[in-house]
Each structure stands twice: as structure tokens, then as C-alpha cells.
Amino acid sequence: MSLRLGVIGAGAIGKEHIRRCTQVLQGATVVAVSDINLDNARAAVNALGLKAEVYADGQDVIKAQDVDALIVTSWDPTHEAFTLGAIEAGKPVFCEKPLAMTAEGCRRIVDAEMKAGRRLVQVGFMRPYDEGYQALKGVIDSGEIGAPLMLHCAHRNPEVGDNYTTDMAITSTLIHELDVLRWLLNDDYASVQVRFPRATSNTHARLKDPQIVMLETRKGTLIDVEIFVNCRYGYDIQCEVVGETGIARLPEPSSVQMRKAAKLATTILTDWKDRFIKAYDVELQAFINDVKAGELRGPSAWDGFAASVAADACLKAQESGALETISLPERPAFYLR
Amino acid sequence: MSLRLGVIGAGAIGKEHIRRCTQVLQGATVVAVSDINLDNARAAVNALGLKAEVYADGQDVIKAQDVDALIVTSWDPTHEAFTLGAIEAGKPVFCEKPLAMTAEGCRRIVDAEMKAGRRLVQVGFMRPYDEGYQALKGVIDSGEIGAPLMLHCAHRNPEVGDNYTTDMAITSTLIHELDVLRWLLNDDYASVQVRFPRATSNTHARLKDPQIVMLETRKGTLIDVEIFVNCRYGYDIQCEVVGETGIARLPEPSSVQMRKAAKLATTILTDWKDRFIKAYDVELQAFINDVKAGELRGPSAWDGFAASVAADACLKAQESGALETISLPERPAFYLR
Amino acid sequence: MSLRLGVIGAGAIGKEHIRRCTQVLQGATVVAVSDINLDNARAAVNALGLKAEVYADGQDVIKAQDVDALIVTSWDPTHEAFTLGAIEAGKPVFCEKPLAMTAEGCRRIVDAEMKAGRRLVQVGFMRPYDEGYQALKGVIDSGEIGAPLMLHCAHRNPEVGDNYTTDMAITSTLIHELDVLRWLLNDDYASVQVRFPRATSNTHARLKDPQIVMLETRKGTLIDVEIFVNCRYGYDIQCEVVGETGIARLPEPSSVQMRKAAKLATTILTDWKDRFIKAYDVELQAFINDVKAGELRGPSAWDGFAASVAADACLKAQESGALETISLPERPAFYLR
Amino acid sequence: MSLRLGVIGAGAIGKEHIRRCTQVLQGATVVAVSDINLDNARAAVNALGLKAEVYADGQDVIKAQDVDALIVTSWDPTHEAFTLGAIEAGKPVFCEKPLAMTAEGCRRIVDAEMKAGRRLVQVGFMRPYDEGYQALKGVIDSGEIGAPLMLHCAHRNPEVGDNYTTDMAITSTLIHELDVLRWLLNDDYASVQVRFPRATSNTHARLKDPQIVMLETRKGTLIDVEIFVNCRYGYDIQCEVVGETGIARLPEPSSVQMRKAAKLATTILTDWKDRFIKAYDVELQAFINDVKAGELRGPSAWDGFAASVAADACLKAQESGALETISLPERPAFYLR
Is B6 exposed, middle or buried (0-12, 13-18, 19+ CB in 10 A)? Predict the structure, then answer.
């Protein structure tokens, strides 16, 4: 039985997920699509020759009788309302990040979901579905390197647009580490400090680039994340876990090894879309499978809330220069993994 | 519209392909399964809760009205007859290697398919669907390293069973290189020579191990393939293409990099099934998609024939110790890529 | 003409330098050796069959007519006096680190040398003579990676003795980075902060291990150095320089690459003595050559002073947990490179 | 006591060895230099400010009372006579390769040396003194990879001059592998076959490039050596030893690892002189030390003879295309290591 999906928001990511569900993934059919610009919704449907209803209002998608589950890929500020709507309708919802614009908004979703009595929300954090991170977690969990003491991470982009500002290093970039590292370590953040090295000459006045974010977890693991979004050379995600007895490092993306022109080289990706392209497929397939199996197991509303709380503290640390506490409430039993 | 598949042969590979079509791939449904042991067919169907008819005779699967296309995973000696049956029925067929037990058998399939007037056969050579080989071919085809002059390849298994004999190094092991290297170079083999180095002490009387097979292509590219099936350390596939201006090497499988116990190490696979596991998915998805699109583009009956002709010459070279000619007829226009 | 050397202190390092000068290096002869235990001096001389005078008092070595230059490898607290003695005698002196027990002591040597009017002191910092660091500096100085913005470094030992305490992570371990990174960047330190991650279970009460030291240079380059002296897996020195347009990384020591037991591995050294063994030869050969050429060019008394000032601030930062200023006076023109 | 060296031949290599003995190595002094062009000898001496006698005739250097040992770096065809002269004079001689122009010439030197009753000759094969090859031999000899079954080697130059012809791939290029691989395996060659792949377009009529030389040893180890002297990308020496239980590979030269312009790269050398530059120092230092210790242990006249015999067979195999036997007489007890 194919899972009938309603997609709210037919922009770039929405269209991408519709294509994914239709041409790549197994076990689901897009039966409804909405966009505040109805033509967008129609175009998305027609482009793939889908037999799907189009709506101007996402709430109508939620309510549609033939829709079993939702994918929310609309304008960020609308995520919270649509996700709450799906919860109210008792329908599972895959919501692209951010779950809400504020930690409070995320908390409202958490509360609504707990009130509903079962997990209905998966947040669109894809990295836990990346094969490399999974292999890395496998090594950590095996105990091969002992307890993780430090993480050295980097998130580098070749360049960003002029409207990318200092705070976005947290909200658009670090947000992925904030999610995946909690999952990797099975731990929560306790504090954060941000340091600004000498700035690259390839940035502008409103963007301090690079930055180093130092997070400490409750267990005391110290994480440094270099964020460098004008690094020029490539899109490069690094994660090295220093344990008591060994070090494990996130695999580099596979590449042909070349000997040419006095260099022994492999290729570094330059487009972020290529780096986790398979993880997008896997996360959405997992959502489909988990909905059908009756139990969501991916990044939860609580994970979205935790990332949001941590991001708020990071932003504060960017401003203060001081060590800022990250005060995440105790995880409710409801969300215990 | 889901492609309705009939699977002939419900042994290990058959069951694996049924699972694949049902749980992993998109756009196909297994509607019929046969096995000479009817219980096997039933078990395969029930294990996945499929609504599929079971048959004792594969020819009945071919004839079944609701079957659009076939997957042949039966006992090797029956491949030829089932594939010919599918051609006769005008139904596309994915046949596991070997296509037939002899080059003559492969030729009969080629002739039947040409007579049918359109491509109906895909042989189960999965390596051209491997991401690494595709990247390597991309580099060659780009001209980055100039014309390929030499290939240094290795096909190593940690160990083989006692019933694995010298000739199987060609028919079970090298057969994959014989297929993928023709595709990689877009060339055909002209001659072959086999050399036997000092044998490992980890072999037995009926298996000379390792072997080095030296193939020359029509364009003069010289290929050495080391076959070493008791290498102990892992399942390791190497392919290095030496071109006029540079060298390109097949990517190593992705792995966490570890620093531990005085070693900086990545993991080498030990189970061959893990090495091309994704390629199996991709080849069968491609078959499904190509059938639906009306044009098969994967490894053809001609490719199966060519591999078989080359393998026969390799076997002769194992015996003679001399340089043996590989006489493949000119490729019919029908099979021009 | 062979340079006639007097060696003050015939302990482990002293004997090693005597052997080096006698059997490995070119252009020098050890003609005098002292040790507070005269038997040690005699044993060192006899072991190599040297025709060298032995003395109980290092000051007598300094004064000996036939001694052209000194090597000070005595007990740390005596370094300052012997070095000052050599300066007073107008004889070039290679002094093992530390130059003096305090920054003030180093300053006295600087002042004495400036008063002498020419460079007479080389401090035994060997890393600038390491081939890998020289290659790394070559890349930085070439401008290939643009201005250095961040350095990610690690200094890891497999284990340390029970008498190794938290402060020694600075004075015995980090001291090498404090020297080599100034040289590498051609910059001076402005501030330092120390963070203590979760401690490894393989340490003891008086040693917080690992530590992360964050140094900021005057130009704003932000350096993080992980010090982890019970890392178990090996002796491992890492240095990654993140520049505006690229990243350069200190070469790993050369090693045979092995495929064995399901691992693709190179060897990590476990004994620190092997890591910079060639650099010790090169630094001392450079001293000999430079003395003969009439101009010392290696690590200077000022470099020793600068490292000492920085180390003091690091120790303070270990205690305070705060950002500590590193106040090095302006470099006198005398020491301008 | 400094070893007093006489250098016969003051061309490029001669001058290089004079500089080496004078400025780099320990324990020797060049006291005599000859060249058929006396001005060359004078210039070499004056350039370094040596107090050395100059001679027009190398035989006079051999006879000079104050000369303890010889270095022969004259025109290739004169090597044999000067080496024989040194043997006759009972003086140790380091002779650059080739030891003689023919195997017979080498044999004459072997016979003369045996008649002299002690080893007096070291041939200038430097690779056994390379750190990488020594590490590789260490792994083989340790038994870690079991008995060596196959070697995959490559000797690649970026380009060669127009006067480099097919046979020089053996006499100028492969000659180094012919020496070092015997030493590495502690084995002798039994046969050789040469295959010519498709030629690179970057060669000329008198040079078939690349070539693959397949050597078989007496123990049955099968060695393939790719010789590619117009490979364009760099000077690259590869050696992979496939043993019964694992594979060991010659280390790549150490290099800074760079992330830049979408590449993760290390540098490949392009100038052959840089590849074994340290090995030249080590081989000559070893000669000096061994002469002083009274026992030569480096590449012997027998090794020179063995390489010459093997090279002759390789040349024959280039012509015949057939498997050619390599008939080295049994090694005299005199040369047993």
C-alpha cells in the first residue's frame, strides 16, 4: 500500500522532495501539493505528470481525506503552524528545518506532539542518515576508541552570497552540526563560546568569517567547530572524534585518485548539494518506512527544539564573546530513544 | 504503472532480487516466482508477504499474461533456455551471469534477439553500475589522462572453498573484469596470456593461485589483472588506468579513518557481497526504468557473448602458457552503443 | 678546519650530542666534556674513543683555550649560568631548552648577548629544522593558501610517567609548539586561553589530560593546540594551517603502506625520539656551519625568551580559565630576521 | 682519521660526489682529482677551495701514495679499467654504474676482486640505501606478509631526451630495479619477457614507450615493471610487494597535504635527482664507513655483474618478444651475504 503524501510548499526543496518521492523512493505517492502561489504547485505536479490535487492553502492539504502524511517545505516562518496543524489532524509530518523560528515555537510543537500521545513529527536533519556519519557513530558506539573526549569539526563552503551574515553561520550552517553531533555523541550541550580569528579578505562587513564555535557537552566532551563559508577551495565537512584510546574520522567522499601534473589528488566537492545527496533520499525513505511501520524514529521535534535552544545560545555567544550556558530542559521520557 | 516481474529461480540470488524489487527499488512488483523446488518459490513469496503466483516451471512464468518482464536467477545451465524463451515471448529479461554455458550458447541468444528486432536482454554484470567505475570511466572519457595505454588491475578474495579450481579464476572471478574493462575502455580484447607466479601456500593442488592475466585490446592497451583468491587480507578490487598524461585509479570503498594502536588505517572489506551491494540495486533499477522507457541500455547479450569468448581464450591460455588470440566477430550494428 | 666543541653535561642528551658530533655531523670535534659527576664525562669520552679533556666544572670548559664553541646539555637550572658564561667568554653556545628557568632568566641572556654585540646563542628548538615543518613553511610563505587564519594542531604522546603534571603539558610539551608556530607564522602571540575537556580515564589526579590551548597571534591568527599525553595510540604531531584560499597540513612521517588483516594502514610512530631524529642532526649541523660562517641563524635567545613568556601566560591561563594576555616586548632590531 | 679519497672524473656526477664528501659526509677528504680535461679537475678543486692534487690520468690518482680509496665517476667506458686498476693497487673503489660496458667486463672485475682475496669494489647503486626501500625490505624480512609472490613496480619519468632509445629503458632506467629488486627479495632472476603496450603519442620512432618487463625469479616471484619515460605527470617510482598474507608498498615521498581549488593533493616529484637525493649521501657515507671498518658491505661487483647479465637478457627479450632465460652463474661463496 503506497503512502499518500501531501506536500506543502512547492519551491526548490519542495519540488526536489516531490521528485524524490515519485522517482527515487519506494512506497509513497504524492497526492496533494500546495503553494501560496498556486501556479507553482500546478507546475510541480505537471512537470512529473502526477495525478495530484493542488491547493493554495497548506491547511487544506493537511485536511485532505486522501492524505496520509505531510511534507512541509514551505516558507520557514510557516513551518510551525503547518506542523501543529498536522499534529492536530493526527497525521505524521516531515518538516524541513527549521521546525520553528524560535525555541519557543519548537517547544509548542513538542508540547502538542506529547499531548497527541505519539510521535508524529520528523525534522529534516539529514546528516544522521549519511553513510559516513553512520559509520563514524558505529565506531564510537563499538567502544573501539573509548569515551569521546574531543571533537574537531569543520564546516566549510567555497563562498556565500552577500546576504549571508554572521548570525547565519549559526542558523544556516552550524545548525547541522548542532543536530548531528548530539546524535553522534548521544549527549547534550552544556555551554558554548565563539571565537573570531582574523577574517578572510574574501568576506564583507556584515559577515565575520571564519568563526570557531566551542561547545561543551554535559559529559564534558569539548567540541570545536570551524565555520568558514568563504574558504574558496570546496565544500568540506570534517569531523574527527578523539577518544581515550584512538581517533576516528568521518570518511572523505569517495573519489577517483589521480596522478597528473605533479599532483597525487582526489577531488573535493564544491557544491553542498552533492555532499549529502544520498542522505536526503535515505531520510525521506526512512520517514516513509517508519510511518508505514507505525513508529517514527528519525530526528524528532525534541531534536529540533534542542538544536534551536543551542543555536540561540550560540548567537548569544557570538555577541557576548563569553561562555554561554545552554539550558535544555531534561528530555521527557516521551522522547527517550 | 508498476512493472510486473516474473522471477525464475528462487535460490539465494533469486530471493535477494525479489527482496530488492519489493523493498528497495521503485516501479516494479514481483507477480510471479518459479523454482524447480516449488516450496522454495512459495517460501520466497511468503517471506515478503507478496501476492505473487508460484510456478514449478520457469517457462510458465514467461508465458504468464500478467508478467511484463523476467528475471532469470535459476541454475546456470538453464539460463540460456529461459532467456531464449523470454525473447520468443517478446518479454524483456534480466539474466544473471552467465548468459549461457558456452560462447555458442551466448551467440544463439544474440541471434535470437537480433531476429526479434529489438534489445530484450540485459546480462547481470553489475560493475558498470558501480559508482566508482562510473567515476573512473568519466575521467577516461573526459580525456584528462589522454589515451589509456595500460591497466593494472587486481581481483582479490580473502579465501575460496575447496571446490574452487584454477579455471574458476577465469569463469567466476575474472569474468567481471572481462566485462567491465571492455565497457571502461570502449574496446575489445585481441589476445591473452596467463602467467603463474609462485603459488601461495594457502591453496590446494587443483588451484594455481595467484595468476596474472595479460590482456591486450584491439587498440593496444595492455591490461594486467592479478587474480589472487586466497590473499587472506580482504576482498579488494583494484583498477589503475595509465594514460598518456596521467593515471586514474578506482576509488577505495569509503571508510572511517582510524588512528589506533600505532596504525593510521581504513577498513578493507572482507565480504564480496558488501563491495558492489549498491551496484546490484542500481543495475536492477536501471533494468526496470529502461524496460519502462522502452529501450534497454545495460550490458547486452552481445556483452555476455564477448565476455564468454574472452573467457574461453583465457582458459586456453591457462593451459597453453602461450599468447592466445581472442577472436570476437565484429559487433553487429544492432549492438552499437 | 674542524670546530672544537666543549660539551657541558654528559647525561643522556649530552652523550647523544657527543655521538652526533663525532659520528654523524661534519666539521666539528668534541675536545672537552664536563659533568658534575666526573665519571660520567669520562665514560662519555671513552665510549667513543675521543681525545677530549674532561672537566668537573662547565665553567672550565668555557674557559678552555682549545674550545671554540659550547654545547650546554647540563641540568636545566644551570643552563642560564653556562650560557651567560659562554657569552662572557665570547664563545658561541648551543643551549638545550629551556634557555633559563624563567622568562627573566631568558631576558638576562638576551641582554648579555645584545651587550656582546653579536649573536652567540642558539637554543635547542629542533622543529624548525624538521623537513616537514620546513615544507609547510614553504607553502605558507609562497602565498599559495593566502594569509593563515587558523591553525589546528595536536601534540599527542602515547603515555607519560606519573610525575608528569598538568603544568608540564605547557613547559615540556607545548613549549615546542610555542617555538615552532611563531617561526612558522612569523608572528607573535597576543593571548591564550586553556580549556579542559573531559579527562581520559588513563590519567591521574595531578594531570588534567587532554587540554586545548587556544593562542591568538598579533595578526589575529587563532591557533588551537590539542595536548593529549596519554592518547595511547602513538606519538603524533599534527599541524594544519587554514589560509584564505586553501589548507596545508604537516606531512605524516613516511611509512610503508600495508594491506593486511582487513586494514589499509600506515604506521604511526610511538617513540617521540624517532619523530624528529633527523631534525636533531640538522639543527646541530646548522649550528656548526653557522658558527664557522660567523653568523648564527637558528632559534635565538630572543626566541627562547619569547617561548618562555608565552609559556608563563599559558600556565596562568591553565589556572585562571580566562583569556590571558601574552606581553612580549617589541623585538629589538638586534634580533630582526 | 679522515679517509683520503681520489676522485677519477670531474664531470657532473664527479663534482657532485666531491661536494658531497667535502660538505655533507663525515670522515673523508678528497685529496686527488683527475679528469681527461685537466681544467675540469682544477675547476672542481678550486670551486670548493680544496687542497687536492689534480691529475690528467686516473691511473695516477690510483697510484698516488696519499690516496686511500677511489671514487670512479669518469666516462662509462673507462669504468672497468679504473676499477681493475684500483683492485690491482689494493685500494677500495666506489664505481658509479655501470661497473663495465658488458657482463664480461663485470665478470673480469669479479674475478680480479676474488683473486685479490677481499672485497674492494662497491657499485653505485643507491636504492638499497633509500629509507623507503629499507623500510619495505624490513617488512618483507619480518615475515609480516608471508613469502613474496608478485611485485608490481613502475618507473616513470616525465620525459626523456630525443637520444633516449628503446634499449635505454633497460640500460639506463630498469637497471635500478634490476639491482634493487634482487636485494629486496634476496633472490635472483630466472627469466624475462617484455611486452609493448600501445605507445604514447609523446614518444618518437626510436623509443617504444611504455614497456612492461616481466621478470621471474628463481623462487618463482613474478615481477612486472612498467617503464614509462614520457609519462608527463612526474618522476614516480612504485613498488608493491604482494605476499601470501598481505601487501606492502614503497612509501610515497613525504609531502605537505593541500586542500586547494577543489583538490586534496600531495606533490609528486618531477626531477629524478630529488627522489633519491638522500640515498646518494647514505651510500657514499656507507662506503667511507665500511672502508674505515675494513669490510665493504654495499652493492658488490657481483651485484654489478648480476644486473648486467639480467640487463642483457632484457635487451634480448625486447628484440625477441619471447621469454628469455637469465643465466647467472651460482654466486661464489666469496660474495655470500
Answer: buried
Residue to test with chain A: of B140, B256, B267, B269, most A Cβ within 10 A: B256
C197:A222 CB<8 A? yes
Which chains touch A (3+ CB pairs under 8 A)?
B, C, D
Q: Between B195, B201, B244, which is nearest D200 by CB?
A: B244
D265 touching C, CB under 8 A? no
Over residues D16-40, mean pLDDT: 95
- The reported pLDDT for the residue numbered C276 is 95
Question: Mean pLDDT for chain D?
Answer: 97
* pLDDT score of B1: 77
pLDDT in tens, C163-219: 999 999 999 999 999 999 999 999 999 999 999 999 999 999 999 999 999 999 999
Of A259, A260, A270, the CB nearest to D262: A270
State the pLDDT at residue A336: 83
Q: What confidence score (pLDDT) does residue A337 get? A: 62
To test the contact with chain B by mutation, choose from A140, A256, A259, A277 the residue with the greatest count of B C-beta atoms within 10 A, namely: A256
Substitution target from C238, C259, C275 for chain B, most B beta carbons within 10 A: C259
**Does the CB of A132 have a partner CB in chain B at under 8 Å?**
yes
D200 vs B: CB within 8 A: yes
Buried-state track D222-233, b at ≥16 Cβ within 10 A, e below 16: bbbbbbbbbbbb
Mean pLDDT for all residues in chain A: 97
Yes or no: say if D153 and D240 are a contact pair by the CB < 8 Å rule. Answer: yes
Three-state SS annotation for chain B: CCEEEEEECCCHHHHHHHHHHHHHCCCEEEEEEECCCHHHHHHHHHHCCCCCEEECCHHHHHHCCCCCEEEECCCHHHHHHHHHHHHHCCCCEEECCCCCCCHHHHHHHHHHHHHHCCCCEEECCCHHHCHHHHHHHHHHHHCCCCCEEEEEEEEECCCCCCCCCCCHHHHHHHHHHHHHHHHHHCCCEEEEEEECCCCCCCCCCCCCCCEEEEEEECCCCEEEEEEECCCCCCCEEEEEEEECCEEEECCCCCCCEEEECCEEEEECCCCHHHHCHHHHHHHHHHHHHHHHHCCCCCCCHHHHHHHHHHHHHHHHHHHHCCCEECCCCCCCHHHCC
Residues of A in contact with B260 (CB under 8 A): 144-145, 245-247
